Amino acid sequence: MNATIEITMYPLRTDYEDQVLHFLSILRKEGDFEINVNAMSTQVKGDYRLIFSAIQAAIEAVYSDEIKAAFVLKILPGALNLKPDFTELYG
């Protein structure tokens, strides 16, 4: 089964940008799935079990480095189009 998971990480540190990039580098090493990053969040698309396992491992690695951070996940069934075309709605 495929899924799309949107992740937002809130590092509780002043060097938050470095911490988010560190998390993303770990996540990218974990498996074969699509990752799209924007200014607000990261969307991961692929096999449900594979991406959950990868996200769990990446979060565990962050916490093992004693980085305090909150994570917010939105989980949707199916492989959603992460770059929708809204031209019909908005011209």
Write a structural description.
- The protein has helices spanning 16-30, 48-64, 87-90; strands at 2-11, 34-37, 42-47, 69-77.
- It is an alpha+beta fold.
- It has a four-stranded antiparallel beta sheet with strand order 2-3-1-4.
- The protein is globular and about 35 Å long.
- The chain starts with a strand and ends with a helix.
Tags for this model:
91 residues; alpha+beta; 3 helices
Summarize the SSE layout with pairings.
Blueprint lengths: L1 E10 L4 H15 L3 E4 L4 E6 H17 L4 E9 L9 H4 L1
Antiparallel strand pairs: 1-3, 1-4, 2-3
Helix pairs in contact: 1-2
Mean pLDDT: 88
Rg result: 14 Å
* Number of helices, counting only DSSP H or I runs of 4 residues or more: 3
Going by helix content, strand content and strand pairing, the class is alpha+beta
Helix content: 25-40%
Report the order of strands and helices: EHEEHEH
Beta-strand content estimate: 25-35%
Q: Tell the overall outline.
A: globular
Number of E-state strands = 4
Low-confidence stretches: none
- How would you classify the quaternary structure? single chain
